[in-house]
Amino acid sequence: MPSNRVRLIFKTAAATVLIAAVAGATGAALVLKSGWYNVAATDQHFQFVHTLLEQGMRDSVRFHAREVAVPRLDAARIAQGALVYRDHCVQCHGAPGVAQQDFGKSMQPVPGPLVDAARRWQPAQLYWITKNGIKMSGMPAWEYHLAEDDLWSLVAFMVKLPELAPPAYAAMTASSARAAVAPAPRARWPGNPQRGRIALTQYACNACHVVPGVTGPETYVGRPLDGLGKRRFIAGHLPNTQENLVRWIRDPHAIDPLTAMPVQDVSEADAVDISAYLHTLR
């Protein structure tokens, strides 16, 4: 019967796809487990891999930035953005007449020059990239390290950047100090645990601690943070309240001068969110 033949065709096609998928996954696992794949930064991606990842990144940014509202990008923002760019961006991306620093030149993928960024991206997209970063590229999420006003100032400057010759760029970035930094957002107690989970990665806490729910290497430089919410003490003697955990996150040396935990310049708002997440670990 024709219906039986159709079912046989679909079953055969499904079995073929399944076998191909299993064979592909097995082959990929063998390549990775054998160590054949070269992870050295001196070994470039295959061109088709680079092209595929680049296209996926572009499509993702366009999708996620579609509802970003763009403020007025005036001259004041451009001037401020030039100094923020000088302090935080030129090291990896270079500028008109200024080369990247050595670590920027050697990264894979190479951080692209931003002198033409405004020709390739809309302001809303530039803001989204700057705020959220790009995973597996070395591009950080500046939301946790720059004020909102600085983020938009950077966007305003990048829009202006294609028009700048080297002397103009040098003149704009010659000022020795930036304008007054906008005040950090006030902490909202008891905090946002989901935002705190992200903040843990943005302050590199997962580089030293194993944190449940946070992707990272299995390193034990610091004590694993599982069950932190039910511990009685922090640093061996400080009662484990949220207020004390915020103090410990922001200035551990004030509590224990001999601790190896560094001061990470965590804002109060971010520390409150981090503490809110850590206290969910029970």
Automatic annotation (TrEMBL):
Residues 76-162, 191-282 form the Cytochrome c domain. The keyword Iron applies. InterPro entries: Cyt_c-like_dom, Cyt_c-like_dom_sf. The keyword Transit peptide does not apply. It holds the Pfam family Cytochrome_CBB3. Keywords: Heme, Iron, Metal-binding. Coiled coil: none annotated. This is C-type cytochrome. It comes from Massilia violaceinigra.
